[in-house]
Amino acid sequence: MNKTIEKAYAKLIVTSGLALKKGQSVIIKANADIEDFVCLVTKECYAQGAKYVHVLWQSEKVNKVQMKKASTKALCETLPMEVAYQQWFTKELPAYLWLDSDDPDASKGIDAAKAAKIKREKYKAVAEYIEARENKYQWCICGVPSKKWAKKVFPSLTLAKAKEKLYEAILLTSRASDGNGIFNWEKHDEILKNRCSYLNSLHLKSLHYTSSNGTNLKVGLIPNVIWLGGGEKTLDGTFFQPNIPSEEVFTSPKKGEAEGIVYSAKPLVYQGQLIKDFWVKFEKGKAVDVHAEVGEEALRSILTLDEGSAYLGECALVPFDSPINNTGLLFYNTLF
């Protein structure tokens, strides 16, 4: 990979994604196998005046061992240091960056119901802190190629070539392949905001989704709801890009008003688990039945995470003509 382009990508992430403020701390969540890029981003954070960069190193291999060997009770326990971290986060309000390089097959063999219960219990233990900092800090998720992710997307290529091709695709879809990502995102965000303005002018009361593979879903919208997309603002007015890449515009559905069935156009990867060729049936706003050829247990776990999980929380419109779709690739990652 061209080092100049790679540095420009890191700068895009810190400048446009995080909109890092001088003197602000940064948290980076990343897998250990992308250490070089984490170092590059860390350097860029300090170049832009970061107070301190905390890296939360992840290991999918270790996580899999934990999930298989430790009891559900033990894994549901929230340690004092975890609570202290959440308290610090809510007080300090650092910029939060997730460099996503996850192996799409990382959770193969892991009990989906067990994983869902652990996530639910862990969240409940620190929910007050997470909710207290909502809309008060910048956050960003972006993609970085890893060996296993690359081989999943390009199984017929050598490892080196697969990783190179995945990086090229990530940069292309992130509008960063020419080294002018910051400028490109300013223009892209303007387009997304114009789409939102147009949709807001229509004062839509409902959406009707249809597709050639069987989708027929009607969704009611909250009265006077607005459409959003692209960059967001914190409560203090800091403008940042939470998702790189991002093509959608979205709005909020009215609870209890979703009728019909939706079929997947592409696979879904949830916490490393592949969900493929699936459908979800809605009645009175609630998902009442699901089926998946691959990953049905994981799909059902999503809908039973809490009381609201079976209801739609967001409705989105995504253009068919987009850098992501035009690659013709299946990324095995919900960001793409």
Relative helix content: 25-40%
* Helix-strand sequence: HEHEHHHEHEHHHEEEEEEEEEEEHEH
Overall mean confidence score, pLDDT: 94
Question: Which stretches are poorly predicted, pLDDT < 50 over at least 5 residues?
Answer: none
State which percent range the strand residues make up.
15-25%
Rough shape?
globular
CATH domain fold name of the largest domain: Thermophilic metalloprotease-like
N-end to C-end Cα span: 20 Å
The number of distinct helices, counting runs of at least 4 residues, comes to 11
What number of domains?
2
CATH hierarchy: architecture of the largest domain: 3-Layer(aba) Sandwich
Query: Under the CATH scheme, which class of the largest domain?
Result: Alpha Beta
Number of strands: 16
Structure description:
It is a single chain. With 336 residues, the protein is of the alpha/beta class. It has two domains: 3-182, Thermophilic metalloprotease-like (3-Layer(aba) Sandwich); 198-234 and 247-318, no CATH class. Helix content is 40%, strand content 24%. Helix 1 (3-17) crosses helix 2 (35-47), helix 5 crosses helix 6 and helix 7 crosses helix 8 (159-173). The longest helix is centred in the middle third of the chain and has 22 residues, at 181-202. The mean pLDDT is 94.
